[in-house]
């Protein structure tokens, strides 16, 4: 490699700290400690090495920790004690990190450590916290170079792929120095690769546990590497890193129609003065149901029936019947995933209406999870009225599991099914920016 040859040459390119660190390595190793602080919002744990304090630089060499720099000491995935670790490669990781430091790169670690500080004791008196901090300290002593460590404790603001750690680093931990986005980079093992085989190795390599590292780098606009290629362990390691996703918030377009089929109107035009209808929504949480109601049906006088406010199905049916009897159209804005749930509304409504339609919200699970996270972030701290808590992913998965997509030709009582597509709409530019990132 050209770059390597240059950096090991005996030239002034070598950072002065490096030669000093080399000669006094053993002293520095023993003296190295890591000072830890927690952010005011308790979402972030920040570590700095001491006495070699991290220095600001425009060149940022940033890394995931577990699976990228360090592995457990054996074949198990999670370390059982602070000593239970080894570098991802016995010699190459350390050599490369020292080299980067010598080249003036600032070494920063961005690690997801949800719930680290409130985790219970594991065997032998160790906690997740003591294991993580112990491993970081061991690595810091082994390297004896300045390092800055960020660990995301929460699941919303800071957890990768969200940009919270990178934004915090830039705004308050790099002395306002603009990063050189071409020279800087991020290395992580959670790259969304499927199960794969290595040449000459019979046992397949497990698929990556997530694609959070890759998406984090894409969000931050940082060049991305997997540890295998970055440290020169396996140059085919990046071959299966995905480049396309079924859902990609960076390029999600509104090119799709609002609804289909378009052969019949959204609001019926064939109703007499006393005709009313019921629209049963069918859709995942965070698929855009209530926004759609407010924008397209509320202006036409449709009454909103919703189980979150009315508590149970009985009350929903009761409210629906009252509205119908007073001559008003109704929208049942619940998830209504199954034929049997919908049948209860259909049976009750049938004698009172001209028509029952189902509106099926087509947003994929990925899109709904995205909306769910963005909504919680966007409304955070905006007061009781506006704030929306994130819905558990389990609830979103459960909807998919139970879903029986309505079919107008088969489901008794439903005259027409309209497919409603999610169109991204934004309150302002900041909302748009937030929505257009991975979360
Ligand atoms: Mg990892």
TrEMBL record:
Taxonomy, superkingdom: Eukaryota
InterPro entries found in the cross-reference section: HAD-like_sf, HAD-SF_hydro_IIIA, HAD_sf, P-loop_NTPase, PNK3P, Polynucleotide_phosphatase
Pfam families per record: AAA_33 (PF13671), PNK3P (PF08645)
GO molecular function: ATP-dependent polydeoxyribonucleotide 5'-hydroxyl-kinase activity; double-stranded DNA binding; polynucleotide 3'-phosphatase activity
BP GO annotations: DNA repair
Coiled-coil blocks: none
Protein name, entry field: Polynucleotide kinase 3'-phosphatase
Species lineage: Eukaryota, Fungi, Fungi incertae sedis, Chytridiomycota, Chytridiomycota incertae sedis
């Amino acid at each position: 490699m050209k770059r390597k040859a240059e950096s090991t040459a005996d030239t002034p390119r070598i950072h002065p700290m490096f030669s000093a660190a080399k000669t006094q390595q053993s002293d520095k190793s023993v003296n190295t400690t890591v000072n830890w602080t927690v952010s005011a919002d308790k979402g972030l744990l920040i570590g700095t090495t001491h006495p070699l304090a991290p220095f600001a630089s425009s060149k940022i060499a940033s890394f995931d920790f577990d699976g990228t720099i360090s592995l457990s000491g054996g074949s198990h995935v999670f370390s059982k004690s602070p000593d239970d670790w080894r570098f991802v490669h016995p010699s190459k990781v350390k050599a490369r990190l020292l080299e980067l430091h010598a080249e003036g790169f600032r070494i920063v670690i961005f690690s997801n450590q949800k719930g680290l500080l409130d985790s219970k004791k594991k065997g032998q008196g160790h906690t997740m916290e003591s294991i993580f901090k112990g491993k970081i300290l061991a690595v810091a002593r082994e390297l004896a170079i300045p390092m800055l460590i960020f660990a995301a404790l929460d699941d919303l603001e800071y957890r990768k792929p969200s940009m919270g750690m990178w934004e915090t680093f830039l705004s308050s931990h790099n002395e306002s120095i603009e990063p050189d986005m071409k020279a800087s980079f991020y290395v992580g093992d959670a790259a969304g690769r499927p199960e794969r085989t290595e040449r000459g190795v019979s046992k397949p390599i497990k698929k990556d546990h997530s694609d959070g590292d890759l998406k984090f780098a894409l969000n931050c606009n940082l060049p991305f590497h997997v540890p295998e290629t970055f440290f020169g362990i396996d140059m085919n390691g990046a071959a299966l890193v995905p480049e396309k996703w079924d859902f990609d918030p960076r390029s999600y377009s509104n090119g799709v129609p609002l609804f289909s089929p378009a052969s019949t109107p959204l609001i019926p035009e064939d109703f007499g003065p006393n005709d009313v209808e019921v629209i049963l929504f069918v859709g995942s949480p965070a698929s855009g149901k209530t926004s759609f109601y407010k924008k397209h049906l509320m202006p036409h006088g449709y009454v909103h029936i919703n189980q979150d406010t009315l508590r149970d199905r009985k009350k929903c049916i009761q409210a629906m019947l009252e509205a119908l009897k007073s001559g008003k159209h109704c929208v049942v804005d619940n998830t209504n995933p199954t034929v049997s749930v919908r049948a209860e509304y259909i049976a009750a409504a049938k004698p009172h209406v001209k028509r029952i339609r189902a509106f099926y919200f087509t947003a994929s699970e990925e899109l709904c999870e995205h909306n769910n996270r963005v909504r919680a972030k966007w409304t955070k701290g905006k007061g009781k009225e506006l704030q929306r808590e994130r819905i558990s992913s389990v609830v979103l998965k459960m909807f998919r599991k139970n879903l029986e997509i309505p079919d107008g030709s088969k489901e008794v009582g439903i005259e027409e099914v309209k497919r409603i597509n999610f169109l991204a709409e934004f309150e302002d530019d900041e909302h748009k920016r937030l929505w257009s990132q991975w979360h």
